[in-house]
Amino acid sequence: MKFDLLIVDDEKIVRNSLRRLLQSDTCGIRTAATAAEALEQVRKSVPDLIVLDYKLPDLDGLSLLRKIRGEAPDVPVIMLTAHGNVSVAVQAMKLGADDFLEKGCEPDIVRHVVVKTLETARMRKELESLREEQWARHAVGKLVAESRSMRHLLTVAERYARSCTTLLLEGETGTGKSLLAEWIHYRSERHASPFIAINCGAIPKELIESELFGYEKGAFTGARASGKKGLIERANHGTLLLDEISELPLDLQAKLLQVLERGEFYRVGATEPTRVDVRFIAATNTNLDELVAQKRFRLDLYYRINVARLHVPALRERRDDILPLAWHFIGQFNGSLRKQVREIDAEAQAFLLSYDWPGNVRELRNLIERAMILKTDSVIRREDLTIGGINATVPHRDELSPGTELLGTGLNVLQEVQKRAIQVALEKAGYNKKRAAELLGIPRTTLHFYLKRFGIEEGETAA
């Protein structure tokens, strides 16, 4: 492994001396005489180690260290200080320097400190390489994120991944909450330990306790003679995703709260607690605030899982991702179905971009899979795309530009278009006002205003 070192010192004799001392077959040396030059070098290519002098002509070393941390937060830094300047060394370590050296110290000491710091850098590189392998193996190496909303989501998720805090993922069914949870796990320090997911709504209530917490031998009729580890115990040192946590029964919510607060739980039939170290990620497609108000979800558990919160946007809210996702799935199915699709024609693209995707990314994937199964050529066409078994068609131009036929009639076209949009949203939402407001992208109070303004009877809609 070849390392790249950057030496930052305004004295040429010091730069040359350190270059001669440290350069080898495994170490390449770059130098900089000023803070500005050093920052330019870091931005061009982040080195494996920076040896940084405290005194520079244009900026002191501590201020430069702060700027370097902003550009490359993980790069190791060794601070060079004058003899006996302990306070500078302490400040440097507080700002994230990995070590410090006094100018003029023995060459063997310099080599030892540099080699020790580079060994840490080597281990970081190997860890990163292992993570890349795991991401590829578990198919979570890359989430499609061309849209601004998804790029922002992954930026925040990356930061949360570095901590062990409990996360709450919110979003509609099919938006990819489970995939995001797995993505976060494999970017965390727990990546080498298990990632386990359970759908709290998919397991019968009488079985979910033993699935989560496990049981002792002889705990109940039909129990295994050896007992059973629950999913919480199996996820020890790793991550447990509690999908659709809103479906967890109230009595088990209390037991889960104990695990979150104390890091321990009781197996079914046990008299002694089992201790675990688990990072919990909860996911839901329902409004937990409303469930808390209805006494269907514990307030104390809600506060405990809502430490950090991420909202996964619906596909219709991230339309810049639709075609990249379609190509992502085409690539997958080209491999698994042995197809050779290379093109999506213009009408098919128009349909994909205009459809509302109530089933989100999952629906798009299913649509592409259906089209690919029957493909005998290399082009996805409009007629290949079916929704619910019905041939999908691209909306007529007037449907894509509603109200154009009213131009010149003397009517208030903008008002008519607003009214039509509200009526369409209400129909698509099954006359549920909350859902209709979400489809329109407006607050519910604003929808009420327009219902009154346009004379749409309140009684026609569901609360």
Report on the structure:
This protein has a five-stranded parallel sheet with strand order 2-1-3-4-5, sandwiched between helices. Strands 7-10-13-6-14 form a five-stranded parallel sheet. A two-stranded antiparallel sheet has the order 8-9. It contains 19 helices and 18 strands. Helix 3 links the parallel strand 3 (49-53) and strand 4 (77-81). The protein folds into four domains: 3-131, 3-Layer(aba) Sandwich (Rossmann fold), CATH 3.40.50; 148-313, P-loop containing nucleotide triphosphate hydrolases (Rossmann fold, 3-Layer(aba) Sandwich), CATH 3.40.50; 316-395, Helicase, Ruva Protein, domain 3, CATH 1.10.8; 402-460, Arc Repressor Mutant, subunit A, CATH 1.10.10. Mean pLDDT is 85; it is low at 390-400 and 458-463. By secondary structure, the protein is of the alpha/beta class. Helix content is 45%, strand content 14%. The chain is globular, with a radius of gyration of 29 Å.
Please outline the major beta sheet. 5 strands, parallel
Radius of gyration: 29 Å
How much helicity do the residues have?
40-55%
Q: Provide the β-strand percentage band.
A: 5-15%
CATH architecture of the largest domain: 3-Layer(aba) Sandwich
N/C terminus separation:
64 Å
User: At the third CATH level, what is the topology name of the largest domain?
Assistant: Rossmann fold
- Flag low-confidence runs: 390-400, 458-463
Give the number of domains: 4
**Backbone shape:** globular
Number of strands: 18
Tell me the name of the CATH class of the largest domain.
Alpha Beta
Query: Strand order, biggest sheet?
Result: 2-1-3-4-5
Kindly name the structural category.
alpha/beta
The helix count comes to 19
The CATH superfamily of the largest domain is: P-loop containing nucleotide triphosphate hydrolases
